Amino acid sequence: MLALRIAAILAVLVTAAGIVLFLVTRDKKYLSFALQVFKYAAIFALLVFGVLILERAIVLV
């Protein structure tokens, strides 16, 4: 769980850094990179939450 928390914090920091770099430089590549990192982090989080819910459902049965 610690590794997942560290990965989540890193994803948030990289996304925020990309947005800040976009605001400073007005270069679209930083914004697209930030959105791509956010998209894949969200997909990964949904997969992890799905596995946790599935684990709980199996334990209850």
Total number of strands: 0
Query: What is the structural class?
Result: mainly alpha
Count of structural domains: 1
Write down the secondary-structure element order: HH
Radius of gyration computed on alpha carbons: 16 Å
Strand content: under 5%
Ends apart, CA distance between termini: 24 Å
Global outline: elongated
Q: Determine the oligomeric state from the structure.
A: single chain
Count of DSSP H/I helices: 2
Low-confidence stretches: none
Helix content: over 70%
Instruction: Give the overall average pLDDT.
Output: 95
User: Main beta sheet, described?
Assistant: none
Question: Could you explain how this protein is built, in words?
Answer:
- The chain has two helices and no strands.
- It has 61 residues and is mainly alpha-helical.
- The chain has helices spanning 2-25, 28-60.
- It has one domain.
- Helix 1 (2-25) packs antiparallel against helix 2.
